[in-house]
Amino acid sequence: MSTPARESERRSRRGAPSRARHGVSESMANFGRGFQALGTLAVDGVQVSARATDLATGKVLFSVDDHVVMPTAGIGTVLLLIEVAARLPNAEFGALTILDRTPADSVGGSGVWQHLQAPSLPVADLAALVGGLGDNLAANVLLRAVGLAAVQARTEQLGISHTALLDLVRDERGPDHAPQLSVGSAQELTGLFMSLARGEVVDAATSERVIGWLSLGADLSLVASAFGLDPFAHRGGDHGLLLVNKTGTGPGVRSEAGVLRGPRAGVAYAVSMSFADTRLPLRLAVLDGMRAVGLDLLEYVH
């Protein structure tokens, strides 16, 4: 139970009033730092969407245009991982099934497999590369193996209608390609990560596999930059914090969704921003805004 001194310290660090103002709910006032940061970015022309939900109660703690469908870049590969995880009990597509990379799968950007000599890897290793490093080549090989149509059908079966993986990963997108790798709403992404954390996506075993791969995530440059965790070793918890997240980064796109547990509470969250990435100061402001939301999340759970 929080003491008055601790609450006073939180309000001082937050730099926000303890009571809701200008129509902001009391719970949102607790996220005043992030709310103000996103509002400032919106004035500067950045499209923002965000949501945070208490993991235990389902109460919405913070919401900014969370219904808006935004480009989410690599976050859409979470839907691919769900389809892969659901198929692992199949003997013809088990964890140790070897998949070869082909020239058609080749892509640059994030990941390490493109820099390695191994021409083939097991399904589970490829999924770990996607979850941990956002490996584009591994994602394309897995997507070729299971099929985009199957991923989209699984997404529909889960009742997800505004979040989708639209295409494979490409170095360049032409007029005949989907305009984005993936899209999603903060509302659905928050719900998806909450369901994964509760073991409700497909079944408990599937959810556990996906959470395991995502727990390897090494990109803590966005919202999670506020949590003070080791990017390469945070699966076991640190100062009572446990994080599972997935980021999406592309031209003019910064997006993150995840679950953060702490000594006091747990939250599921999603933050997406779309902007004209023509000036470095604006990109840095976007990163600062995402970190501001992360600081509020950290303060809520710790």
TrEMBL record:
The keyword Hydrolase applies. InterPro entries: Beta-lactam/transpept-like (IPR012338), Beta-lactam_cat (IPR045155), Beta-lactam_class-A (IPR000871). Coiled coil: none annotated. Keywords: Hydrolase. Residues 11-22 have a biased composition (Basic residues). Residues 52-273 form the Beta-lactamase class A catalytic domain. Residues 1-25 are annotated as: Disordered. Residues 1-10 have a biased composition (Basic and acidic residues). One of its GO terms (molecular function) is hydrolase activity. This is Serine hydrolase.
